[in-house]
Write a structure and sequence with these properties.
heterodimer, A: about 160 residues, alpha+beta, 7 helices, 5 strands, about 15% strand, B: about 450 residues, five-stranded mixed sheet, 10 strands, about 40% helix, globular, binds flavin mononucleotide, binds iron/sulfur cluster, binds FE2/S2 (inorganic) cluster
Chain lengths: ~160, ~450
Amino acid sequence: MALPDKLKAEFTELISHYPESRAGLIPALHRCQEELGGWVTPEIMEDLADFFGIEPVEVYGVASFYPMFRLTPRGTNVVKVCHNISCDLRGAAAVLQRAKELTGAEVHGTSADGRFTLEVVECQGCCTTAPMIDLNDNFHENLTLDELERLIGGCK
Amino acid sequence: MSGFEKYLTSRMTGEDSHTLAAFKKNGGYATLERALKEMQPAEVIEVVKASGLRGRGGAGFPTGLKWTFMPDPAKDPRSRYLAINADESEPGTCKDRIIMDEDPHGLLEGILLACYAMKCEASYIYVRGEYRHQYDRTAAAIVEARAAGLIGKNILGTGFNCEIHMHKGAGAYICGEETGMMESLEGKRGHPRPKPPFPAGFGLWGQPTTVNNVETIFNVPFIVEKGSKWFRTMGSEASPGNFLVGISGNVNKPGVYEAPLGTNAKVLLEADHFAGGVSEGRQLKAWFTGGSSTGMMPGSTVDVAMDHDSVKAAGTMLGTAAMIMLDDTQCVVRAMQIIARFYDHETCGQCSQCREGCQWLHQIFKRIEEGQGREGDIDLLTSIGNGMAPGKTICALADAAAIPAHQMIKHFRADLEEHIRDGGCKINKTGKCAAGHSHDAPATEKAEAQA
Ligand SMILES: Cc1cc2nc3c(=O)[nH]c(=O)nc-3n(C[C@H](O)[C@H](O)[C@H](O)COP(=O)(O)O)c2cc1C
Ligand code: SF4
Ligand code: FES
């Protein structure tokens, strides 16, 4: 597979912002993950290596360092529950427990029907509006269990 | 006490506060224009220096002084950069996001003034990847400002050129450390660099670079507009100005509040126009003064002025001024375990003391919390923490992980000993929920039920 032209054009613009093109690698990984199936496949890493003129192993080294990049397939929806201190003090443990029940997924696992991947994450900068989850890349803050149920119920 | 002058949040009103139109209506970019036309770059540095502004990213370094570390461009013609630290990942900290959400043009005006002062040709704003909304707001502001001739070539016809670029991180706390951030911006793993060389000499792509926090730079237009004397009317002698305090945890009104530096923490906790007291009228068991790295202090120490020197005299640090409050139904051992787990997750792994140390601290606090603590564990924690002291590792993350452990042993030794002796947590056993103490429902739900 090769990178879609649309992304290639985007990345060409992207690297014009930096004196050295490699600086565009992390933003490019984000865009690939967003556009090409929700995780960074080995093929994507090879294509990006090609585009940036570096070795695939260097792309892997970067992709594997950053928690936001996923190197394995994910469910249709991704639920991330913050379990750091400010959220814990306001009920994150209960949120996580309910999220497991509602999604049928274990932490860092995907539900049997493939609909949900559940993750715990470190502080997301929503501490004064805790507890929070990130559902499919959107923050939901000041969360209640009812709201959690509504959100999960509304997923594809 | 509520009668102090607010400036940081003064424009954060209304639905459209993030737009150029609203910003201009409030006098936005007038200070930039005046500075570009009437002030020399050195004069801008002088005002910031005289104001006594200190970095709001955690270390409190004097901003004007930092700016003077940049080499003289007459002698060193390399490219020069300003990197804005919007990684904001210190647990408890959520202040920079409100600036990017609600007043991104204020940040851009500060960046342009700083770049003018230090003669930087470009600035990169490094935003943590999870802050999508904040990234989009700031990127949109850049588009507006560029269209208005405020970014790019020959800004406002003055001959000043400056680019501002957005850059997205991908969820690693260590990329908030300034050299880790630069590696990450260059498209590499966020492995901090040994210092020296310092960023001013060898920064982004090996060029002279200054790294400043979002809130630090956001202060600059106000200082340039109103002067250093005005700035020094707020805050304390050594810590002038206002700051954004995030108050989270078990309080009635968690939030990010503007206050003068030096405001008493008890006032911030209890006053109605701040956090409104500990939840449900409970007692304060413990608190973090400024993010997880400062460690926990006993609730009885909350009567302290929140400025760099006073908090230091009380035995801890101002850090990011993110106060995390624990009421007396919380278990401090659990809180400590969560913090230790965080550093274990976030160490970049380059230095063995840090990599191993973070892991051991986590494992030991975890087993103490779970009732598997051993005699001698407390001494072991101390010796591991000592091995992570400053100077033994490349960056300060190791220290940031060790400080909470030392604070825990100093102030909450009895809780640790009790857990080791009793084989676990009393609060946990008598509490309402297996996972953690009083967490039977999110606090938001309890508040709703009460209303
Ligand atoms: C482990 C670690 C994490 C840090 N995270 C941040 C951060 O998220 N945001 C920030 O502004 N500074 C952070 N810092 C501090 C920066 O290294 C640097 O001191 C700061 O950005 C300088 O800006 P200032 O002088 O304006 O405060 C961190 C430092 C360490 C050691
Ligand atoms: S101290 Fe820790 S985080 Fe910092 S460079 Fe060393 S291993 Fe990495
Ligand atoms: S602790 Fe959960 S968002 Fe900060």
